[in-house]
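We treat protein structure as text, and this decision shapes the records that our systems exchange. We quote a single record here, exactly as it is kept in our systems:
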Amino acid sequence: MRSFFGPRSVGGGRMQVWGCSPGCLLVSLLLSIVLTVILNLLIGIF
């Protein structure tokens, strides 16, 4: 099982790349959209 934030080996194991998997990027994008909407609603109330 692969970690979301662990290094990925590229080029036959010669190089390791740190980064998010596509699923992790999608979750973080959705989370930022939801938090932005909530923040806008809170600002709109006050």
